[in-house]
Amino acid sequence: MPAQNKTSGSDKRQRIILAAMAVFSRKGFHKAKVEEIAEEADIGKGTVYEYFASKKELFQEMLVYVNDHYQEQAALKLKQVESFHDGLHKLFAFAVQITREHKEMALILLSDHPLFDEDFQEIMMKKEQQRLGALSNFLQRLIRREEAEVGRLRPEINVYAASLTILGALYSICSRIIFHDNEEDIDFEDLARESVDIVLHGLVVR
């Protein structure tokens, strides 16, 4: 492992952002101190300001990082799927995992935060649109592949409507995780599996 003083700038910047995630999640923006973030990152307070002009800038860059990290991890997780069934299960399982891991960050992203000026709101809206578009494209590819290779889907299926329906179920589960105070009374992994089963087999006995 390289000595700390030889850590590259990009590595140190990421370390600060990861430390900020931990501190902001515990204390929120206003109560968190730059000194605490520096201590979490095992660096001096001055080093934080070498990479970020202010606590607000660090906070915003952290949110961008969380969003980009989610998209990168989702792309890796869903790069190779064996079937429509496998793809849906992987997508739902990953969404539950990442939402539980970053519940506090999700709450911040969904809030109308006073630190979100117009320019930053526009940045985050574009990133959310990109994420939604990427998920929708993934689902549409799965549906078309299932239709072409297996032929088990209804021939009249509207692929776009189907992808939005699946995304609606996915976002509902994630929202439940974010806003539910006591996770012990809900098995979210099981809820995700049941949701996929309903998407695949419907509600009505035929």
Kindly describe this structure:
- This protein has 206 residues and is mainly alpha-helical.
- It has two domains: 52 residues, Homeodomain-like (Arc Repressor Mutant, subunit A, Orthogonal Bundle), CATH 1.10.10.60; 143 residues, Tetracycline Repressor, domain 2, CATH 1.10.357.
- It is built from nine helices and no strands.
- The longest helix has 32 residues.
- The termini are far apart.
- 21% of the residues are buried.
Which series of helices and strands comes N to C?
HHHHHHHHH
- Span between termini: 60 Å
Can you tell me the overall shape?
A: elongated
CATH-derived topology of the largest domain: Tetracycline Repressor, domain 2
Share of residues in helices = over 70%
Tally of helical runs: 9
**Please, what is the CATH homologous superfamily of the largest domain?**
Tetracycline Repressor, domain 2
Poorly predicted spans:
1-6
CATH architecture of the largest domain: Orthogonal Bundle
Share of residues in strands: under 5%
What summary fits the major beta sheet? none
What count of structural domains?
2
Structural class: mainly alpha
Provide the CATH top-level class of the largest domain.
Mainly Alpha
Arithmetic mean of pLDDT = 82
Using the CA coordinates, give the radius of gyration. 20 Å
Tell me how many strands there are: 0
